[in-house]
Amino acid sequence: xxxxxxxxxxxxxxxxxxxxxxxxxxxxxxxxxxxxxxxxxxxxxxxxxxxxxxxxxxxxxxxxxxxxxxxxxxxxxxxxxxxxxxxxxxxxxxxxxxxxxxxxxxxxxxxxxxxxxxxxxxxxxxxxxxxxxxxxxxxxxxxxxxxxxxxxxxxxxxxxxxxxxxxxxxxxxxxxxxxxxxxxxxxxxxxxxxxxxxxxxxxxxxxxxxxxxxxxxxxxxxxxxxxxxxxxxxxxxxxxxxxxxxxxxxxxxxxxxxxxxxxxxxxxxxxxxxxxxxxxxxxxxxxxxxxxxxxxxxxxxxxxxxxxxxxxxxxxxxxxxxxxxxxxxxxxxxxxxxxxxxxxxxxxxxxxxxxxxxxxxxxxxxxxxxxx
Length: 372
Known about the structure:
Layout: E1 4-9, H1 22-33, E2 37-44, E3 59-64, H2 68-71, H3 78-81, H4 86-92, E4 99-102, E5 120-124, H5 128-138, H6 142-159, E6 167-170, H7 173-183, E7 188-190, E8 210-213, H8 219-233, E9 239-243, H9 248-254, E10 260-264, H10 268-277, E11 280-282, H11 293-301, E12 304-307, H12 309-312, E13 322-323, H13 329-337, H14 343-356, H15 359-371
Parallel strand pairs: 1-2, 1-4, 2-3, 4-5, 5-6, 6-7, 8-9, 8-11, 9-10, 11-12, 12-13
Helix pairs in contact: 1-15, 5-6, 8-9
């Protein structure tokens, strides 16, 4: 196949060092393996130009992102307005290839009549208006709270104003259903995440601890870590919190608590080891938008897994992890710490995950959308 495709990415999808770029990068690899000629256009704001992307793309072009001060009065969500770039549009107009926009962030060309006759697809990573509403609700900083509230309101208005012939490819069935019903868009479908080729192997031995992991610089993750730390401090259960940039408040709250350890900014290898060795991975969430990569990571690479209803919303994972309310997590964890994680449970889980997150099969589905 010699099909060409423009991909517009909200960020530079390499290195693969945080959850948001897993789907972006591994989609490139999967499409390249199918013979798709990729012309990647990405916004660079601190991650640098990455020669490794040339291994999977015919061309890679980088664009700057506009600061918030320059988009404040635009009447558009900042995540969108900051990625309006005439150089990008002119480059896309030099060919007639389909355009896959990675994230609502990159979708302003849907409003540009020069692209009305182009095949246009949007990978919807979240329902962004809901995501920012949740961020604002969980933020403790007033300026961030106000920014997120404004962004959510602008996103809701923007999401409702886009062409109905757009193809929306959502990361959960719930998002596809909600986005379609909320705004009346006809072409919303579920396309699973593209993931690393994790070589899962059953390991009976484990460490004697429970683990919560995530990017702790994100307000909702930090808030969850604080809540869990408070709950586990009242128990004897060994509890590890690991992630990027834990807050001073979290470090102070857990200082001197004998059964709680905070591991700040572990390397990818260190994090992988923590996940695989934990007797129980704890993956609750404060929002039900999108899909949580850390849940999939824990299910692929870990043992027992506890989640809440918000984490598994829109997934098919209710039968392969323990689902409970936040305050009940320590009690469930105590039981699972004494329960063997069997090979049968592992094989059931991996069979389900590999059926859903099959990069080759999902690349074929995406190519059908591109070529139809």
